[in-house]
Amino acid sequence: MQVVSNLLNNALKFTRQGKIEASVELIGSMAVTRIIDEGTGIDAAILPRLFTKFCTKSANGTGLGLYISKNIIQAHGGTMWGENNFDGTGATFYFSLLVVSSKMCLPDQ
Length: 109
Known about the structure:
The chain has a single domain (about 1-100), classed as Heat Shock Protein 90, CATH 3.30.565. It has about 110 residues and is α+β, with helices and mostly antiparallel strands. The chain has helices at about 1-15, 65-75, and strands spanning about 20-25, 30-35, 80-85, 90-100. It is about 20% helix and about 30% strand. The two termini are about 30 Å apart. It has a four-stranded antiparallel sheet. The chain is globular.
């Protein structure tokens, strides 16, 4: 929840006009979550260190959100990455987590 909240808050912060899309796709045994925005995109100067501490071009933020989010995903065995959109508008952030199947016990109805 913390990771999704952070990614959506960032998308809202950097998208003054346009849309934001969120989706989850099952690829093999991985659930890949994708947040796409039509905002300002990722500044080329910070792209190589995007997930490091205090990396930000925003006047409203500490630059810790993506660093913390990536560490949460990695602690659960997943990966996280981001890129500018090919059309030059906005950015897309992804994270993947292993899907573990388990049987659920539901109470009798």
